[in-house]
Amino acid sequence: MQFAPEALPLPCFSFEDALEAVESGRAGCAMIPIENSQHGRVADIHFLLPESGLKIVAEHFMRITHALMALGEGPFEAAYSHPQALGQSRHFLAERGIVGLSHADTAGAAAFVAESGNPFIAALAPPLAADLYDLRIIENEVEDAHDNTTRFVVLARDALDPATLLGQSAMTTFIFEVKNVPAALYKALGCFATNGVNMTKLESYQKGASFAATQFFADIEGVPGDPRVDMALDELGFQTNEVRLLGSYAQVRRRG
Question: Are residues 85 and 19 located together in one domain of the fold?
C-alpha cells in the first residue's frame, strides 16, 4: 500500500508462492522483505532469486510497528507471530513473561488467535490485523526499537535497463562465488576498492554440502554502464568462479 497505492494486492502464503505468482504472470511484481534493522536477514534471497530468474527492480524501506492483540485482557501465556516479529519484540515479551510462539506470518497469527477463542493467548501483528480479525489491541508499538525498519526488494520478470539509471543514485545487487584459494575474498573486494565503488552489503553463504565453495550476496552503489562499475565487475569476473547480476534499481535511501 505504501509502495504502490494503486496496485491490487495479491496475498501469498510464502515467499516462494509470491515469486511463482510473478513467474506465472498472475502478478506483475513481488515485494519480499530481505533484512530488518533489528533482527537481520528475513528472506534467503540469494537462494530464491537465482532459482526464480526474476530481477530486482526497486527497493522500499518501511518502518515496522507491532501491536499486542488478543480476545481477552490477559494475563497472556503466549504470543504468536512470525519469528521476525518475535525477535523484534523479544525484550517486551520477556519483561512480561509471555512465551513467543512461531507462526507462518503476523496476520495469520492474529487470525489463529481470533479463531482459537482462547482469551489467554495473544498475537503480535500490525494494528490493521486487529480490525480485520476483531481483536482487542492490548498495547501498541511493542517492538524493542522505535526505529525498527525493514528493507524490501521488488522483483519482476524483466530487469530495468541500467542505462536509464545512469547519473542518479542507484544500486546493483549481484552474487559471486570465490575461488577456493588463499585471499580469494580479499582479491574480490579489491576490485571495488581500486575502482572507487562503494559496497554497502556483503553476506556469505556456503554452496552445497561440501563447504568448499563460498558464495557472496552483495550490493554496490552504481550500475553497469558507469566505467568504474564496469571495470570492477570485469575484474571480479577474473577473480571468481561466477558472477550473476540480480538487478539494478534506484537507491531509495542513502547509505552511510
Answer: no
